[in-house]
Amino acid sequence: MGRKKSNFVYKYFIYDEHQKHSTCTVNDCGAVIKDNHGTNLLKHMKKHPVQYKLILQENSAESEEHVEGNRKKKSNQDFEIKVMDECINLVTTCGRPLTLIDDKPFQKILDMAKAGCSHSPINSHKIREATQNKADNLCDDIASKIKKKTYKS
Ligand SMILES: [Zn+2]
Q1: Is residue 144 part of a domain?
Q2: What is the distance in A from the centroid of ligand 1 to the CA of 64?
Q3: Does a structural domain hold residue 97?
Q4: How far, in Å, is the centroid of ligand 1 from the Cα of 88?
Q5: Residue 35 domain-assigned?
Q6: Is 16 within 8 Å of 34 (Cβ atoms)?
Q7: How many whole angstroms from 42 Cα to the centroid of ligand 1?
Q8: Ligand 1 center from residue 12 Cα (angstroms)
Q9: SS3 of 26, please?
């Protein structure tokens, strides 16, 4: 998902693609600035302190929102990995049946745990796949360790 570059300074200018210049639309200013570089436009906006302040506020609010969004996404991922790990432990180390994952009470517990987080549902199918992947990784790991040992001796 691409994020379009947004600078609120552009709200106050009309860009003429033909002439390659931007016209200030604040009040009756009508100042013409070459090209449409955000920094140059912003420099001009200092002549309009009210709008200038607004632009800075809106720009910083937007970037904070972006950071906050990323942070939340990351913590959702961390949460899902942790929950999945415990589910895998349940059906491997503890020897519980895989169907336990789909039991309604267990699903309810998952729902309670994920409150405030948005992640895709965890079910027995997903756990089976994740367990298989983990087992494969373990096998690879063991195999490579044995290989190393063999080469060493
Ligand atoms: Zn102006």
Answers
A1: yes
A2: 27
A3: yes
A4: 62
A5: no
A6: no
A7: 10
A8: 8
A9: coil
Contact 12, 51 (CB under 8 A): yes
Q: Please tell me the total count of domains within the chain.
A: 1
Query: 91: domain range?
Result: 72-152
Neighbour count for residue 52 (Cβ, 10 Å): 18
Q: Phi and psi (nearest 5°) for 21?
A: -145, 160
- Radius of gyration of the chain from its Cα atoms, rounded to whole angstroms: 28
Please give the distance, rounded to the nearest whole angstrom, from the Cα atom of residue 7 to the centre of ligand 1.
16
What are 55-109's pLDDT values in tens digits?
Answer: 999 998 888 888 888 888 888 788 888 888 999 999 999 999 999 999 999 998 8
Q: What is the Å distance from ligand 1's center to 59 Cα?
A: 19
CA 48–ligand 1 middle distance (angstroms): 7
Tokens found for residue 140? 């690879």
pLDDT tens for 106-128 read 998 888 877 656 567 788 999 99
In terms of DSSP H, where are the helices of the chain?
Answer: 38-45, 49-91, 104-113, 124-152
Q: Positive or negative, the Cα torsion across 8, 11, 14, 15?
A: positive
Residue 42 in any domain: the answer is no
